[in-house]
Amino acid sequence: MEGTGQLRISLLGPCAASTGGEPLDLGGPRQRAVLVALVLARGEVVPVDRLTESVWGEHAPADPAGALQAYVSHLRRRLQPGSAARTRSAVIVSEGRGYAVRLPPDAVDVWRFEHLLDRSGAAQEPAEVAELLSRALALWRGPPLAEWTDEPWATPEIARLEELRAVARERLVAAQLALGEAALLVPDLEVMVAEAPMREERWRLLALALYRAHRQADALGAFRRARTTLADELGVDPGPALRELERQVLAQAPELAVPTQRSRRTEPSVPAAAPAPDDLLDRDAELAAVRAALDDLVAGEPRLLLIEGPAGIGKTRLLTEIRRLAAERSVGVLAARGSQLEKAFGFGVVRQLFEPRLTDPRRRDELLAGAAASARGVFDPMGGESPDGSFAALHGLYWLAVNLTADGPLVLAVDDVQWCDGASLRSLAFLVRRLEAVPVLVVGTVRTGEPHEDEELLGELALEPVAVVLRPATLSADAVGALVGRRLGEPVSPLFALACHRTTSGNPLLLRQLLRALEADGVRPDAAHADMVVAVGSRAVSSMVLMRLRRLGGAAPVVARAAGILGDGAPLPVVAALAELSEPDTAAALAALARAEIVKDEQPLAFVHPLVREAVYRDLPAAERALRHERAARLLRATGASDEQVAAHLLLAPVRGDGEATEALRRAARTAAERGAPDSAVTYLRRALAELPAGAPRCDVLRELGLLESLVDGAASTEHLLQAYEGMADPRDRADLAVAIARTQVFASPPGQATAFARRAADALPDELADHRQALLAIELVSGYMHALDPVRWRRPVPEPDGEGHGAQMLAAALAYDVTIEGCDRERAVRLARFALEGNRLWAVDHGLFWVIAAIIRMLADDDLGDFWARARAEAHARGSLFAVLSTNLWQGFWHWRRGELAEADSSLTNALDESRMWGGAGVAPPFAYAFLIGCHLDRGDLAAARATADAAGTGPGIGDGGRLLQHALARLLTAEGRHESALGLLDAIPTPVPVPNPVWNPWRSSAALALRGLGRTGEAIALVEEEARLLHRWGAPSHLGATLRLLGELRAPDGLADLRESAALLATTSSAVDLARARCALGARPEVADDEAVPLLQAAMEEAHARGALGVRERARAALRSRGFADAVCRPTVRSATATERRVLELSAAGLGIREVAQELFLTPGTVRSVLERASADGLKFLSSPTGEARTLATGRTP
């Protein structure tokens, strides 16, 4: 405590002393130097010889001891002016051969400054921190020890004090920022940055102040200035704290807002739980979420946990804890880790996950049985023809996971998902989207700032309904202090802990590496050593890892670099061979590396963290790394490693024109393709193409590459296939490839290219390849329509199909489409479409174009398809073609929608959109899917869902049929929202380069009529609908004509009763359940219809609408019944029929199949089957065998 008359010594500015506020005369410079030297010793005895050196240096007097004694005597009298001459000094004492000061802690301004700085480090509230630091900085009256700036004994202390003052100023600004003073602080911070432009903390504070002052652009400019300054002056990049703040500013992260509570992180309240492990501090919220997810899993609820954050934030440590907590609950765990080196391995991460459970042959056969059998190729490439795509593998892997849960809940833990190979990421996404009722917890760690090649898919995972995203924050100052104490010992100075926190920005990995370096140097965690933390620096990992490697010496650096080249999991003999050492010497070096915390002390070999491996790997020059990868590939090939392991290194090696390397890459590509990982195969083949020796034939590699690229990169596919086509000599090979190229161009090339190429290739074919010519003519015709090209570019006379070949069937489908567009000859269209589907032969050569077109034509003609879509789905799954599955889901969804099976339509169309994102391509499918989904939602009366779907679809006009149908759907949505003028404007803006007269495929008149009715322009609306009805009479499909007549009858009001009766009669002959309900509702609501006719109509409409989920129709029917004065009792549906999906599920269930067996048979998820059974049970639906052996639906009379 300060008291009147107490001695004060000031060193923070000119050296001075006072007592009771009165200044004291300290004598000349040398006498003052004696006092300062003693004060700086902080009570320790300073020997006479050291004092002599401090005061006189090399110019000491003949009797320095006597001179010092005189100085000390004078100082004693002046520092204690009231003391008697004979009184023993209490301030400067003699001990042995030296002197020491004995002063209270608050007697020296330096000591008071350090004490206030320490207290501020322990304070929690910004206001308290700011008050303490303001008092501390107020003690400064100028440069410290200014009289002795050139003296060797003073310069270290001057530097230390200046550093502490700089830290105090920065911490004061940080506290003031936390108090909301950003705008006022910007000018001062600009001055501080100019004073010390190498201090990154000042740049950080300036950028934060600018951002909080709503000057984001200026904040980003500050980052650029900092980066330029550091690069120009020091040749370094900004440290992690500055980089992290830049990331947050760019993302406008909410945590950058001015804190409203305590400065340290306050976690949300969580249920009481077991204490966290000692090294998991500040992770209570994350651990609570983990425990909740595991508890849900044990209860049968699936989850996805994504742990996101920058490198070193502790994601892997949390993953390790999840595995431990799962083991406590007796939950099985399968783990894998993504790797930069192995990103091209087809299903590499998936194989890491599942292969440990597939080692026993009997167990392997059990797990890969049934629907999971299509995943066998992932683990055992079977040779032969490559699959059409990865869907078979994805579907099989999903069922492998389901089969594994028969033993109990399962955790799939994947570290470093950002380095996961593309096939594995698609597999995880496929699984996550089908997790309902499957007790699996998928956990993945994702390093932010490391984009994946399929970043969109990775981002979508976080939006899944089952997803929980954890973003661990940096450690608080308290947590850092605790970890410092555990590593370096207690007590820990708050100033030292604060320095550690500031230097590492609370990043756990950086902190761990920093503490490892400080521990190795024997640094104590006290205030006097806080400057050592700053000296070590913020670029902790690379610099300290390499420093430890240099200190280890011997074989350790060589072995570390060899391991860095080979990557985690490298076997000891290969590491030894690459390091050119014996295996015992290599093992000893690995042991030393483990003790230095560079590699893990376990097998298989692994670095303690990817950043550590990266530091070792990047320490090698790029050219030397490439040469070492080349040597690693040779060593692995010699030891019998897999082609994919060899290829991983060849991808990083110099291009040599090496035939052996080319063949190894081609073999690796075939293996990846057989696994169902075409993207990996493409990577290998692209390098194989570059590696071809000079003069070697290129056609085979180009063809292999192009055909595989057609599954993942359509634009590149056509380029390489065209090169192969030009180089081929055999006419049949050229013709086969021409058909493949043209078909790929339909979906992957800009409009017009497929048409032009197909015409050119067809004209070049010899006469004996007539079936190929028919195939190319079919593609030319269909692509003209699909891409909405000017007919001048593609219209020409097309002959009738000739023969029974695939080309003839493709041409039949194309002609059926052409006839349907014209809308004049339904019988011919059906005949051509049926021939196209005859024998299901097109399935073998066409993934989902011509056989889909033929099925669409039959649907638009009301030609019953029977079980076509069930068979198409089975075939698509059997072939494993993702595009075929996508096509099936899209058009089966359309089929369900037309039949009024809205729930099934929603499911199929949503799956089609997911599969379209997985497939990529030019986006032909999404406009159709969005159009049909909007129609489903409108039929359900769910405007919010329809609007959300429309927003997801975007506002672009789209191309061809899909874009046009989407615009129609959007117009109907606008009409339903009451925005009639906007709907008409949208319809007027639809381009129509290709006329589509048939309303079944271009219902623009009825869409416009709905908007016109809303605007009161009924006469115009009637005229349009009458014209549409005339065209539909000519086409002759009852479902479409019936729907249009219903609208016409509503528009004509009193004069439309006949139209309504005809509508209801026509629709009763079709499977269009919702349209039939609308027609009956419209007819029953007419006041001129008597009750005895109207009530049954309205009752039937209400029941059917309720069964189909068409709630708007149901409520209109209910209101019409009430308006006739009938009681609510008759307004409740008493019966409903089963949908097609329900019927199949119930039939198989009644035959004794379990939920999983039914799901596998119908290509559904177990969750979907369970939901169907629960819904059927709730509605009283059962299936029993009739005397004829047919299933029939029973209704129990339950009401909704």
Tags for this model:
1200 residues, mainly alpha, Arc Repressor Mutant, subunit A, 3-stranded antiparallel β-sheet, 13 strands, elongated
Biggest sheet statistics? 5 strands, parallel
What is the CATH T-level topology of the largest domain? Rossmann fold
In the CATH classification, which architecture of the largest domain applies?
3-Layer(aba) Sandwich
Envelope shape? elongated
Number of helices: 56
Strand content is under 5%
The portion of residues assigned to helices is: 55-70%
What's the total number of strands?
13
Structural class: mainly alpha
Rg, Cα atoms, Å? 40 Å
Mean pLDDT: 85
CATH class of the largest domain: Alpha Beta
GO molecular function, one term: DNA binding
DNA-binding region: 1-103
Keywords: DNA-binding, Transcription, Transcription regulation
Domain OmpR/PhoB-type: 1-103
Tell me what the structure shows.
α11 runs parallel beside α12 and α49 packs parallel to α51. The C terminus is likely disordered. This protein has 56 helices and 13 strands. It is mainly alpha-helical and 1200 residues long. The strands form 4 sheets. Strands 8-9-10-7-11 form a 5-stranded parallel sheet, sandwiched between helices. The protein folds into 10 domains: 179 residues, Arc Repressor Mutant, subunit A, CATH 1.10.10; 77 residues, Tetratricopeptide repeat domain (Serine Threonine Protein Phosphatase 5, Tetratricopeptide repeat); 187 residues, Rossmann fold; 60 residues, no CATH class; 82 residues, Winged helix-like DNA-binding domain superfamily/Winged helix DNA-binding domain (Arc Repressor Mutant, subunit A, Orthogonal Bundle); 60 residues, no CATH class; 83 residues; 67 residues, no CATH class; and more. α17 links the parallel β9 and β10.
